[in-house]
Amino acid sequence: MARNWKGYRPLVVADRRFRWKCDFNHPFEVFSAGYAEDGHAWSSDKLLVRPEDLPHCLLTVSWSACRGPVVTPGFVRVCVNEAVRRGWPDAEPMMELAGAEVPTSAEEGGN
Fold this sequence. Notes:
- The protein is α+β, with helices and mostly antiparallel strands.
- It has one domain (about 10-105).
- Helices cover about 15% and strands about 30% of the residues.
- The chain is built from two helices and five strands; from the N terminus they run ββαββαβ.
- β1 (about 10-15) and β2 form a beta hairpin.
């Protein structure tokens, strides 16, 4: 993958640089008639994270459409820490986590 970081935001976790972006459905659509009729078939909302030094590696955290959390840099940091604990990106370059597998914001603590 070329190092085209358009749309990605920078983040540093444990002295390592990452880039992240959200691939979410518009949050107001959850109240629309379209969501009421077809929301169950919409693609999942996703958080995408890549290490700057290994852009071919990818962490994906996904939730049901329009049901994900408010994504902040602190929350992304929690996701990265959980993935690193599980071996990403060094031992497992591609990892997908369900949103429920990531600690909630109440569990973030001082991160």
